[in-house]
Design goal:
Elements: E1 10-18, E2 34-38, H1 40-43, H2 53-63, E3 72-75, H3 81-87, E4 98-101, H4 105-109, H5 114-130, E5 139-142, H6 157-178, E6 181-183, H7 186-189, H8 208-221, E7 229-237, H9 266-277, E8 287-295, E9 301-308, H10 312-323, E10 331-333, E11 336-338, E12 340-350
Helix pairs in contact: 2-8, 3-5, 5-6
Pfam family, one: Lipase_GDSL_2
Membrane topology: Single-pass membrane protein
InterPro entries: SGNH_hydro, SGNH_hydro_sf, TonB-dependent_transducer, TonB/TolA_C, TonB_C
Length: about 350
Amino acid sequence: MCFSFKKQTSLLIIITLALSFNFFNANSTTPLTYLALGDSYTIGESVAKNERWPIQLAEQLNQTGWTISAPTIIAKTGWRTDELLKATNEIEGKKYDIVSLLIGVNNEYQQEDPSQFESKFKACLNRAISHSEKGKAGVFVVSIPDYGYTPFGKSNLENISKRLAAYNATCKSICLSEGILFIDITPISQNGLVQPDLVAKDGLHPSAKQYGLWVEKIKLNLPQQKQPEITAVKAVTSTYYYGAKAPTVKWQTVSNPDQMPIFTGGPPAYKTYIENNLNYPSTKKEGTVYVQFIVLKDGSLADVHIIKGITPLLNQEAIRVVREMPNWIPAKHEGKTVHAKYTLAIRFRLDH
C-alpha cells in the first residue's frame, strides 16, 4: 500500500549536487584527499617522484575538473602485506576521500601460497576501508603487475605469471564479494618484453610510460573521469512525499563495466533535470544524501535506495527525484549492454 503527503512552502535555497564516482564526492572549494597504499609499484621504484602512478592519477584528474590534493603515499620497496599493515599504524584514525590499494607482489616473490595470501590481503583491504571516508565506496584496488614479462623475470616467466594470476584471482574475488572496485592493469605489464620502454632502467619495475598507461586504464574503469558540481539558486515550492519502499529485486550486475551508465544528455541535461525537479523539504538540515540504484539494460532504474542519508525528509526527496528520472544510457561491457550499479551524491545546502 502506498500513499502520499504533500506540503507546500517557498524559500530561497542553494541546491548543490554532484554526479559522482561511485566513491568520490568532489567539492570545488575543498580538495579531495587521497591515500595510496602499496609497495614498490606505488612508491614508484626507479622513476621520478612526479612519475609515480598515484601522482600521475591525481594530476590528470585535476586537469579534468577535479580538485585533489597531493596524494599521501604509504608504500616502500619490498613490503609484504604485514609490513604495509604495520606502517599504516602511523595514520591510525585518519580518513581520506579516496583510498587505493596495490599489494602482494613480495608475498608472491617469497613463494607464499595464494591460500595464505588470502587472509593477509583481506586484512590490508579492511585497513584501507577503515581509512576511507566513504567506507567501501571510497576504495579501489589495482591488480598486481606481471614482472615475469621483464628482463629480470623472463627466465622464469611461466611460473611467475602463473603464481601472480592466482594472486590476482584471489584479490579480484575478494573485491567482488565486498563490492570493491577492482582494476586490472596486469595485461598492460605483460607487454614489457615486446615494448622495452614499458620497463624502467632497473629491468624490473614499470617505467613512467607504463604507469601512465595504468592511469588511463584506471580512469576508464572509474564511473566518471569528471565530477561537475552544479549550483542553482532559485525560489522553489517544496514538495515531498511519503510512500512505501519499493521491493528490492536481485539483478545480476557487472561491477566494473567498460562503460558506466550515463544520464541521457550528459551533465547539462542532468543539471536541467535537477533544477526543475529537486525540491528542498521544510527543514533546516543540510548535508549530502548518497543514493544508489541499478541502471538496467533498457536504461530504466531499479533498486533505488539510500546508502548514506541525512534525515527522512531529505532522504525521501532524493529517492523521489531519482525514481522519477528519465531512462539513462545503460552500461556496456565487452560490447554488450549490461545492468550496472550507480551512486549519486546529492547535496542539500541552505542559503545562509
